[in-house]
Structure formats: structure tokens, C-alpha cells
Predict the 3D structure of the following.
Amino acid sequence: MTCQIEECDGDGSNDACKVCLDHSVCLGVNPDNPPPLYVCGECAEDIRRGNNLVEFFDILMPMHQVSATCENRNCRSNEKNSVATCYSVECASYNSQRPIRYCHQCLNIRHNNRRGIDHTVHSTVDSPWNMEPQMQNFTIEAII
């Protein structure tokens, strides 16, 4: 989605990263379209300056395809097979507001004990043979 503000600096080509559900704001800014209102970050800040009570929510764009390799532009790993997908807005901002796939090394760097702890990450299931005995039984039963 692109920014729905007609006077957007990006001439309507900026990707929307925020959504507003307040109908009075949506219809006041863009009366031709019903809520929700999708806007870029700059337009959201412009609207917020006019009314600081306006609430915007971060949005993630859908993934076009699930990449089999790491999508981190700065990846220096020798093993670039992706092992996890991060759905946090912070990490998605590096991937055009789309969930991003990481290799094992990039996942550990980006989600260490100092940052990224609160991110929603979907990763592969470990081998049942490396799990605790109770979890191993549950996993094997679930597969069977």
C-alpha cells in the first residue's frame, strides 16, 4: 500500500507504514476514502502535529514470498540459509515494512540479550532428538 494523502511529499509513491482508524481524522484528511487511512511516516507526523491525540498503529506489509536465504543486506555469514522470520516493526523497517528472514548468525546478532528480546520471531522446530525428553514425546506424538 502507498500513502493515501494527496499532498504527500512522495507524490503518492511512499509506502504506508502507519494506519489510523479514527474516522474523524480519516475523513478530515481524505474525505473520498473511508477509514482506515494508510499513511507514510512523514504524513503521520504531520497529522500528529495538528492533533497530538491522534493514534496511529504500525503496519506490516505482506510478504511477497518466503525467502530461503537471509534478507539482511549486511549479512556476512557463510551459511545464508534463513532459519527464522521476525515480525517486529523494528526489524521489518529494514525490509520495506515486511517481515524479514534471517540466517542463524544474523538472528543471533539482531536478537541478542540486549535488544530484540520482545520481538515476535517464528523459527524452525529443532530436531526432536535434541529436545528434553518430555518435549520430545510431545513433538513425536504431534507428528504421528
